[in-house]
Design a protein that fits this description.
This protein has a domain of about 40 residues. It contains 2 helices and 2 strands; from the N terminus they run H-E-H-E. A two-stranded parallel ribbon has the order 1-2. Strand 1, helix 2 and strand 2 form a beta-alpha-beta unit. The radius of gyration is 14 Å and the shape is globular. The termini are far apart.
Length: about 60
Amino acid sequence: MGVGPLAPAKRYNRHLRELVHLGKAKPSWIVSHNLSLEEGPDAYEHFDKRGDGWTKVVLHPNGS
């Protein structure tokens, strides 16, 4: 038996996007790392292994 998604994200996407747009929700607090795209493979390894302090990673195509 396969593992499904933890939450029905598609059900909430538009509502959450609107809350962020209106400034009523600030999801940036959960981002642990802002990195360049080149750092992506290394970041994925840390995140995949559930490394300490690796919650959410934002990759920036033009640098961090």
